[in-house]
Amino acid sequence: MLLERLPVGPMESNCYIVGCKKTKIGAVVDPGADAHKILERVKVLGLKIDYIILTHGHVDHIGALGK
How many CA atoms lie within 13 A of 34 on its CB side? Predict the structure, then answer.
C-alpha cells in the first residue's frame, strides 16, 4: 500500500494519495487545491486514479475537484 500526504493550497490543507503498489489503482482524498501538483505526483507514482474521496464539503477540501 502507498499513502502520501500532499499539502495543497494557501492553507496547506492535507490532500492524500492512496494506492496499491501492485495494481497501481489509487485514490485522491480531499483534493483542496493545486490540481497540477496533485496530478504531477500521481503521474510520478504511476497510479491510475479510480476514486476521489471527499471527507466534507469545505472549499479547502474540494477546490480542485473539477480540475
Answer: 19
Encode pLDDT of 3-28 as tens digits.
Answer: 999 999 999 999 999 999 999 999 99
Sign of CA dihedral 43, 39, 36, 9: negative
Q: Which residues contact 38 (CB under 8 A, 6 or more apart)?
A: 6, 8, 15, 17, 28, 31, 64
What pTM value is reported for the model? 0.87
Q: Grid coordinates standing for 57? A: 464539503
Residue of 59, 67, 66 lying closest to 10 (CA atoms): 59
